[in-house]
Amino acid sequence: MSDTSRGTRDLLRGNQATMADQAGAAGAGVDESAQFVSKTLDSALKRSRRGKRLWSFANHGSTICIVVCSAAAAVMSQTTVKVWNDDPKTVATILSLVVTVIATVQSTLGFERKWIANRMTQNSLRRLQIDEKTGAGSQQVKERLKSILEEHDRSITAGSG
């Protein structure tokens, strides 16, 4: 027998205890919903924090590699001293190739855009968490969380495709 038909049967019989149990279960459903939203928010914050760190590392690390390799290539192109038993011009050419590859990967994959998207998402999620912990309604938090995650997806995928 389905829960609906049991509920209808009990209601028709006038079983007040069952009606009270159902009201309690409905309240528990609201609590479960709020807990789900809270757990989803916490999970999104963890993912955002991790994404921000990884994209920050990728963006800044690749930028540093580009600068260092470019400078080293410039120096190598002007020197006559062998480096690792190779002609300095060959080393400069290899370093220039490395710079080109890193810069292409960095711009094509949008490291900076993804780093910024994760920073913005994390900041929005933190503000939402403050609202949630200080009594904002579960429905309001749920709608705002969905909006933040949708905006994050748009920011991450912008420029790709």
Describe the protein.
The protein has 161 residues and is mostly helical. The protein has five helices and no strands. α2 (16-77) packs antiparallel against α3 and α2 runs parallel beside α5 (138-157). The two termini are 50 Å apart. Residues 1-26 have low confidence and may be disordered.
Please bin the fraction of helical residues. over 70%
Look at the helices and sheets and give the structural class: mainly alpha
Number of domain units: 1
Oligomer: single chain
pLDDT < 50 runs, ≥5 residues: 1-26
Largest sheet: none
Average pLDDT figure: 83
CA distance, first residue to last residue: 50 Å
Structure summary, number of beta strands: 0
Radius of gyration, whole Å:
28 Å
SSE order and pairing:
Elements: H1 3-13, H2 16-77, H3 88-109, H4 111-133, H5 138-157
